[in-house]
Design goal:
- The structure is a single chain.
- By secondary structure, the protein is of the alpha+beta class.
- It folds into 2 domains: 181 residues, FAD/NAD(P)-binding domain; 127 residues, no CATH class.
- It is built from 12 helices and 22 strands.
- The strands form 5 sheets. Strands 1, 2, 9, 10, 11, 12, 21 and 22 form an 8-stranded mixed beta sheet that branches. A 4-stranded mixed beta sheet has the order 6-7-5-15. Strands 16-17-14-19 form a 4-stranded antiparallel beta sheet, with helices on one face.
- Helix 1 runs parallel beside helix 12 and helix 10 packs across helix 11.
- It is globular, with a radius of gyration of 22 Å.
- Bound molecules: flavin-adenine dinucleotide.
- Flavin-adenine dinucleotide binds next to helix 1, strand 20 and helix 12.
Length: 432
């Protein structure tokens, strides 16, 4: 295999594969994806809630780009799933107010939906009585139904994007963990950089860092985004027994109470195949792959060392943050505490019926020097690399339009060239 490429994409999650997919189809450049695992999509992209989110609860003043990508992502995911016969169930979602004070938040979310580009018919406010007519098992004061929300399997989409990219010439290097980038000293290839991997080095002109939970460490290794540090939160799920499969018609979210933190209360989730789950919570862990105790402890020492950084220290002195963290730990250790968080609005759930944990996924969130969480994803660049950081929910929904924008940006800067012979494909209109 050739070991010299125009562009090297680090990370075979849904974002890296979406970028590789568009680059391989619309440009003349040679592309390689390097992935530390045996195959693509083994981490966050297949360990999530599987919702194609509509942007009704993203504040348009703070999260306008997140909202715009979610809006556009919905249509693109729908088209891609239709083409490849992948699951895409337009099942809608409900957000409920559990007490009177949350009703105002719901009204605000209807306004945000409109500002974020949803149509009037996409989101409907329902009074308590109207809500109980459609979901009689719910306990709430009122709610919003968002009809433009869907369930899918992002792991399958991730794999298909990789297959499509390979079909259009993209190469892959699996079980090859990125370690460092150096200016190219090899004479064999006329390239600017050498990417050092655990099993194979690659010479390349440009690097795209889509390394998910490792993306900040990768950026730091080239001296970028040093002002940020990160914290990882494990989102855990419990699978509901079959007897609860018809408890509600739609997934149920409660109004988020602490919007500046990553602690949403767990939801009642209906997956695309009809299975129901409770989750996710957000338990602080030491690393992006800390799915179990052993993996968590492996990362403990470097992370504890890192927590002496200013932003992290400020966060750890924040009493509200610490109180919320202890709540998350308690719902991790106690199944009853976790299920009780959803029982607030679905009182017929019995914690002792829940026997099996679902697949946990880990969010990696950036923290600035003041101890604040970054509100949106960040694109940070130097002349030969681009880094996508803080790429969190609804990142799977937005991966296709985000990838389109990144590829357009690279074309605009002449880092890659549009192919002279254009291939007619599903998203051709994005590049005309
Ligand atoms: C609990 C939870 C629920 C979520 N629910 C939803 C949802 O319902 N809807 C939604 O739209 N979004 C959701 N998200 C967010 C969404 O899943 C993520 O934003 C998205 O999957 C991120 O994709 P990614 O490609 O950036 O990261 P990843 O999928 O983590 O991919 C990164 C890849 O990079 C590889 N990698 C890392 N370091 C290296 C290295 N050094 N060398 C080589 N390879 C490397 C990893 O192995 C991995 O394959 C959820 C996230 C979580 C945690």
């Amino acid at each position: 295999m050739q070991d010299s490429y125009d562009v090297t994409v680090i990370g075979g999650g849904i974002l890296g594969c979406a970028i590789a997919y568009f680059l391989s189809i619309v440009t003349d450049s040679s592309i390689i994806v390097i992935e530390q695992e045996k195959k693509v999509g083994l981490h966050t992209s297949s360990r999530n809630t599987g919702k194609v989110h509509a942007p009704f609860y993203y504040n348009p003043d703070k999260k306008s780009s997140t909202a715009a990508y979610a809006l556009k992502g919905f249509d693109m995911v729908k088209r891609y799933c239709a083409l490849h016969k992948l699951p895409f169930k337009e099942d809608g979602v409900i957000e409920i107010a559990i007490n009177d004070s949350e009703i105002d938040v719901l009204h605000k979310h209807v306004q945000w939906a409109c500002k974020n580009g949803l149509k009037d018919e996409d989101v409907k406010f329902l009074s308590k009585d109207e809500m109980l007519l459609i979901e009689p098992n719910l306990k709430c004061e009122s709610g919003i139904v968002c009809f433009r929300d869907a369930s899918t399997d992002y792991g399958l989409i991730n794999e298909k994007l990789m297959q499509d990219a390979i079909m259009y010439g993209c190469k892959t290097s699996f079980e090859n963990k990125f370690r460092a980038i150096y200016p190219n000293t090899k004479t064999a290839a006329n390239r600017k950089l050498t990417v050092i991997g655990t099993v194979k080095d690659i010479t390349t002109d440009y690097i795209i860092n889509a390394g998910g939970g490792n993306s900040l460490d990768i950026a730091h290794s080239v001296g970028i985004a040093k002002e940020y540090t990160d914290l990882h939160f494990r989102g855990e799920y419990w699978i509901a027994p079959e007897k609860y499969n018809n408890l509600t018609k739609r997934s149920i979210y409660s109004v988020p109470r602490y919007t500046e933190y990553p602690f949403l209360d767990p939801h009642w989730i209906i997956r695309n195949d009809g299975r129901c789950e409770v989750g996710p919570n957000a338990v602080p862990v030491f690393g992006p792959y800390s799915y179990n105790l052993y993996d968590n402890l492996k990362n403990a020492v470097p992370k504890i060392f890192e927590s002496s950084k200013v932003g992290m220290l400020k966060l750890f002195l924040n009493k509200q943050f610490l109180r919320l963290v202890s709540n998350e730990f308690s719902s991790s250790l106690s199944k009853t505490n976790m299920i009780n968080r959803v029982r607030r609005f679905l009182p017929s759930l019995n914690p002792s019926d829940f026997k099996q944990r679902g697949r946990a996924g880990i969010r990696s969130l950036l923290i600035d020097k003041n101890g604040n969480f970054a509100s949106e994803s960040l694109l940070v660049e130097n002349e030969s690399s681009l880094h996508i950081l803080n790429y969190n929910s609804p990142g799977a929904t937005g991966a296709l339009p985000v990838a389109v924008d990144i590829v357009r940006k690279l074309v605009h800067r002449n880092i890659v060239n549009l192919a002279s012979k254009r291939i007619n494909f599903l998203f051709m209109d994005e590049f005309e």
